[in-house]
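Input record (one chain):
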Amino acid sequence: MPAKGTRSTGGAAKNTPTPNEASRIQSTQAKGGNDTGKGSFPSRIQGAAAKGLNAAAGAKAPKSTK
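The corresponding structure, as predicted from the sequence alone:
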């Protein structure tokens, strides 16, 4: 039996979706007539995929030139 307090519950997903997975989710939702606009589940998945891709590539936000 594991020690008390070692079991993780809830929280964010451990695996970030790939851009292909995000595209597939968004496509199936659109074909089903569901919302794919800003703030929708497919939109958030696509954002997470892009964020994960950028983090994996070591990309940083560009500095403002203003």
